[in-house]
Amino acid sequence: MSDVTDTAARFVGQIVAGNTGAAHEILSDRLAGDVAASDLLTHFEALAEDMGGVTGVGEPMVILEAWPDKSEDDRAMVYVPLEGDEFSEAITVTVSEQNGELRISSIEWGRP
Questions:
Q1: In this model, does residue 35 exceed pLDDT 70?
Q2: Quick check: 64 and 79 in contact, CB under 8 A?
Q3: How far apart are CA 68 and CA 55, in angstroms?
Q4: Which terminus of the chain is less hemmed in, N or C, by CB atoms within 10 Å?
Q5: Please, are residues 110 and 14 in contact by the beta-carbon 8 Å criterion?
Q6: Closest among 51, 45, 60, 47 to 92, alpha carbons compared
Q7: What is the DSSP string of the chain?
Q8: Distance CA 68, CA 86 (A)
Q9: Does the pLDDT of residue 4 top 80, yes or no?
Q10: What is the pLDDT of residue 75?
Q11: Per residue in 8-17, pLDDT tens?
Q12: 60-98 burial by CB neighbour count: b if 16+ within 10 A, else e?
């Protein structure tokens, strides 16, 4: 599962670093068609503002490997904690396989 958590960590790390273009390249084709790179920054900035700023990224954790709507390509849902000045939040992503590569196929901004 380390490849799945590595993909989630790389995606969140790119967003936190402000590299939304690079983060956008990790999205599945379907999600990339629905979400612009600038949207990633907008969602992240709103989350960071609510937290009082992001001071770090915690270790990603696989929270689900099976769920009712799981597709054949889905590998796991991964929770990536964000540390903040006022409180912590998270970005939860679904990591899926697309053409032999792991991609982010869904994003939940904030703790579930």
A1: yes
A2: no
A3: 35
A4: C
A5: no
A6: 60
A7: -HHHHHHHHHHHHHHHTT-HHHHHTTB-HHHHHHS-HHHHHHHHHHHHHHHTSEEEE---EEEES--TT--TTEEEEEEEEEEESS--EEEEEEEEEETTEEEEEEEEES--
A8: 35
A9: yes
A10: 97
A11: 999 999 999 9
A12: bbbeeeeeeeeeeebbbbbbbbbebeeeebbbbbbbbbe
Q: Residue 112 pLDDT > 90, yes or no?
A: no
The CATH code belonging to domain 2-109 is 3.10.450.590
Determine the residue type at 7: T
Residues in CB range of 5: below 8 A, 6 or more apart = 59, 60, 61, 62, 78
Q: What is the pLDDT of residue 34?
A: 97
pLDDT tens for 50-96 read: 888 999 999 999 999 999 999 999 999 999 999 988 888 999 999 99
Q: At which residue do the structure tokens 């390249």 appear?
A: 25
